[in-house]
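User: Design a sequence. Structure:
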């Protein structure tokens, strides 16, 4: 059963990290050069969040809950992993997911104006900063899950 949940966690990681990377790449490659591109990129990011990122995050959480139940004593690496996942989950549901429909709405409004609105650019800048704040916790979460290092008192 532990192997099954490890596998589910791996699939979740692929979906979650792949979705995040696709957001970064599409934004860097296409940007917001025109209202149509801004709209298309925003729609893609929103759909990608619902299809890849959130389900991937859910799979990771489910596998972590199952893994947690397998320990007699919870190791410190797992506690750090859970803390990083908690940050990522809060960041996703409180900040990033609500921004996706707002960005689509602002981009759609720019279509009729013929120019990408400042409101859209401001919201996109906030989304970029909030998204970037995920980098270190995500790296920590991945390292803890992959290498499972002995931390603090466990090193003795």
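Assistant: Done.
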């Amino acid at each position: 059963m532990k192997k099954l949940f490890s596998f589910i966690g791996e699939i979740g990681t692929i979906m979650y990290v792949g979705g995040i990377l696709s957001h970064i790449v599409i934004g860097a490659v296409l940007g917001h050069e025109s209202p149509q591109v801004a709209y298309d990129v925003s729609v893609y990011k929103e759909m990608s969040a619902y299809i890849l990122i959130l389900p991937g995050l859910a799979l990771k959480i489910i596998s972590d809950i199952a893994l947690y139940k397998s320990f007699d004593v919870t190791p410190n690496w797992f506690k750090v992993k859970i803390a990083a996942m908690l940050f990522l989950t809060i960041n996703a549901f409180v900040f990033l997911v609500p921004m996706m429909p707002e960005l689509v709405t602002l981009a759609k409004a720019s279509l009729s104006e013929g120019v990408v609105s400042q409101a859209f650019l401001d919201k996109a800048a906030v989304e970029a900063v909030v998204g970037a704040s995920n980098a270190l916790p995500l790296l920590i979460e991945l390292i803890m899950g992959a290498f499972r290092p002995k931390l603090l008192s466990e090193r003795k």
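Helices lie at 2-30, 35-69, 76-113, 118-132, 135-147. The mean pLDDT is 95.
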